[in-house]
Amino acid sequence: MKKYDEIHIENLQVFANHGVFPEENKLGQKFLVSAVLYVDTRAAGLQDDLTLSTHYGEVSQFMTSFLQEHTYQLIEAAAEHLTEELLLTFPLLQGISVELKKPWAPVGLPLDTVSVKIERFWHRAYIALGSNLGDKKAYLDMAVESLGEFRGCRVEQVSDYLITAPYGGVEQDDFLNGCLCLRTLLTPEELLSVLHEIEEKAHRKREVRWGPRTLDLDILLYDDLVYDSENLTIPHIEMHLRDFVLEPLSQIAPWVRHPGLGKTVRELAEDLKQKQKK
Question: Which family does it belong to (predicted)?
Answer without folding.
Answer: In the N-terminal section; belongs to the DHNA family. Belongs to the DHNA family.
